Predict the structure.
Amino acid sequence: MPAERPTRDQYVYWEQVTTRWADIDVYGHMNNARYFEIIDTVVNNQLAVATGVDIRALDAIGVVAEVGCRYFAEIGYPEPVDVGVVADKVGSSSVVYRVGLFQGDGDEASAEGRFVHVYVDNTDPARPAVPMPDVIRAAVTPLLRTV
């Protein structure tokens, strides 16, 4: 992840999510677990929309191998959150995503997550790593920044 605070222009795919009263912890800001739920949901929404298939039913599925988050500013209730996604790397069996969360009109992220999917054999109970399905590769390659 870049060291500086990310800005909106660094992301390719966008969704907006809403905050809920239940998302807020005793300190008045969004609970850490909710950041990870949003990151996971938006990445998988992008895959489902871009592929047009039930990604859960593919012979190879993406499982989370790594997730992390850097926090820059509080996110609270009741304002919506703009969520941007970019792929830093598309490998033979994995994708490394950065996911920016923005609340309000500012250009700088309130938080940025790192999210790694590794593709595994969905037909084998041992779930060994396998090459990414072509339909997934076609969906994530446009997320790579070309600038």
Summary: The first strand starts at residue 13 and ends at 17. The chain has a mean pLDDT of 95.
